[in-house]
Amino acid sequence: MDSQTLSPPDPFIRYSHEIAAAVTVPAAARALVGASALTTAEAAAVTTACGALSTRIALLRFLAVPGAADPGAVRGHDPFTEPMPPALLGRGPMPDRDRVRLAGDRCVEAWRTWIADAGSGQSPVGVAGALSLAAWCSWALGSELRASTRARYALDLAADDPLATLVLRACRARRRAAWRG
């Protein structure tokens, strides 16, 4: 019989949705930048991974890295030991625009899949998280109207979503990303 050693859980993960998000974040990263159409299983991975803020920040950091990064290496963000990624506020090197646009569109597609299959058991918090990540993607590309629309949809599902709130405030304040070229 084969046994597999599991690494201990990250210390900042406390709740079942955070555990599910941490486990699915590599699959979600692959789905966000994949070449083929988003499947129902990939949509579920995206919404599950977006159920915790730490994994959303990790996905954001992954999307903002210029060049190809390995989606399988994406892990949750530990806010107690790691600084917030500068990309959260639109700072640092310019991310690949096509990659960020694709990821934002796939997050919206995950939301549409959830709507089409209402009652599928997916948490509205994870769907709101996917929409808030889509809002950040739009904001990062300079599309404030699309970003604020996506952020409002996210806040309709989860009124206390911190990423959607941040994006919406940035749009209202006309704060744009200041990427380095």
Concise overview:
The chain is mainly α and 181 residues long.
Would you kindly provide a written description of the structure presented here, covering whatever features stand out?
The chain is mostly helical. It has one domain (16-172). Helix content is 56%, strand content 0%. The protein contains seven helices and no strands. The model has no long low-confidence stretch (mean pLDDT 89).
Layout of secondary structure:
Blueprint lengths: L15 H18 L6 H10 L3 H12 L32 H20 L7 H17 L3 H14 L4 H11 L9
Structural class by helix and strand composition: mainly alpha
Succession of helices and strands: HHHHHHH
Outline:
globular
- Give the biggest sheet: none
Total helices: the number is 7
Terminal CA distance: 53 Å
Helix content: 55-70%
Features:
181 residues; mainly alpha; globular
